[in-house]
Design brief:
Shape: rod-shaped
Strand order of the largest sheet: 1-2-3-5-4
CATH superfamily of the domain at 269-401: Histidine kinase-like ATPase, C-terminal domain
Distance between the termini: 57 Å
Helix content: 55-70%
Number of helices: 12
CATH topology of the domain at 269-401: Heat Shock Protein 90
Number of strands: 5
Length: 401
């Protein structure tokens, strides 16, 4: 049955042609019956009208407006040639319904409604029922006009329903596209966040390990104790890097069972002092001060503050040159947290903090700006007037909307 239904939906003109043939057959029986009373010539005229009316049914969906005009013209010809109402006039109902359901030009729907309502009164005027009283004729006219009105109303209801379903489908398609776009944006944002985390973890810890490894190699023969301490620092830094990498993998592997214990929590402001000590052990002189009353901050603000200090000290060690010194200031305001990281080294080139640098360099500063922007803060990075490099940030306590 479903295949048959699908076939009929794919061939609407074929279905209409079938019903046109059926209508033509019943109408010709009426023509033959009338021919016995009125002669051959009126029967030929009636036959031609019946044929054309049946043709309008077959082509009603291909050219509804043209078929409506043809039906209206044939109705006028019926009145002029005295061809009484017959089964073929059902084509008028079919065309009124089709025009109203298709929602074509406004003139066509108005013509269908007005012509259909006028057909019954005109037929009663042209072929009055002499045995009926005036009230009876009026009642009969109203009854005959009802099918035409119902055909138009049914067609208009179908048009409204189709438009409603089309709007629902369009809305569903639009929502699906919006969901896909939002999913892509979310994926891109998550990839950027993970890229920032990976950069901060790898760049800082690997930088410390490289510095310590170079120092250990330099004093390996002359000062074995210092070399041993450097190797211990490398070992500790490597373990810390692995712990943070494990935490990032835990974010990526949502739904997987953790192998053992909990992943290391995200760094916060309290761990900045440990970070400074780690950098000092790597050979960078750092002056660290906290101003204001320390208090608990939103996790996003604390992570952002830690990563900014981490990236700033990493850049000082990489770009500051020999004997560089740095200072870190944390200032607790009533409505936010201020950060100031400075060094007295050579500083980074202009392209590293403005354009992102060549060959992938400078992405740490780009990541800083993205992190600060996510919490609704402000960041200023650039060379100091007296030499060196400065990074200042203000992180509000309330997230940006």
């Amino acid at each position: 049955m479903q295949r048959l239904y699908d076939f009929l939906r794919r061939h609407p003109t074929g279905v209409d042609s079938f019903w046109a043939v059926v209508l033509f057959g019943f109408s010709m029986l009426w023509v033959v019956a009338e021919a016995g009373d009125g002669g051959t010539e009126p029967a030929i005229v009636a036959g031609v009208i019946v044929l054309l009316l049946s043709l309008t049914v077959a082509l009603r969906r291909r050219a509804p407006e043209k078929m409506l005009l043809l039906v209206a013209g044939l109705g006028v010809v019926q009145m002029v040639t005295d061809v009484r109402p017959n089964p073929a006039d059902f084509a008028m109902l079919a065309l009124i319904y089709t025009v109203a359901a298709r929602g074509g030009p406004r003139w066509a729907t108005q013509l269908g409604l007005i012509g259909g309502l006028a057909a019954a009164p005109l037929a009663q005027i042209r072929w009055p029922a002499s045995e009926e009283s005036a009230s009876g004729q009026f009642f009969l006219t109203v009854v005959l006009a009802v099918p035409f009105a119902l055909a138009w109303v049914l067609g208009d209801s179908v048009r409204t329903r189709r438009a409603y379903f089309a709007q629902l489908e369009e809305r569903a398609t639009r929502l699906e596209k919006e969901r896909e776009a939002q999913a892509k944006v979310a994926v891109a944002a998550e990839r950027a966040r993970i890229a920032r985390e990976l950069h901060d973890v790898v760049a800082h810890n690997v930088s410390v390990m490289v510095v310590q490894a170079d120092g250990a190699a330099y004093v390996l023969d002359t000062a074995p104790e210092q070399a041993r301490q450097a190797l211990e620092t490398i070992s500790g830094t490597g373990r810390q890097a692995l712990a943070e990498m494990r935490r990032l993998l835990g974010v990526l592997r949502t739904g997987d069972v953790k192998e053992s214990g909990e992943y290391v929590p995200q760094p916060d402001v309290q761990q900045i002092e440990d970070l400074v000590e780690q950098v000092r052990s790597a050979g960078l002189t750092v002056d660290f001060k906290v101003e204001g009353t320390p208090r608990s901050l939103p996790s996003g603000v604390e992570l952002t503050a830690y990563r900014i200090v981490q990236e700033a000290l990493t850049n000082s060690r990489k770009h500051g040159g020999p004997d560089v010194g740095a200072s870190v200031r944390l200032v607790y305001f009533d409505d936010g947290l201020g950060l100031l990281v400075e060094d007295d080294g050579r500083g980074a080139g202009h392209d590293l903090y403005v354009d992102g640098g060549a060959d992938g360099r400078g992405h740490g500063l780009i990541g800083m700006r993205e992190r600060v922007g996510m919490v609704g803060g402000t960041l200023d990075a650039g060379p100091r007037p007296g030499g060196g490099f400065r990074i200042s940030a203000l992180l509000p306590l309330k997230p940006a909307h």
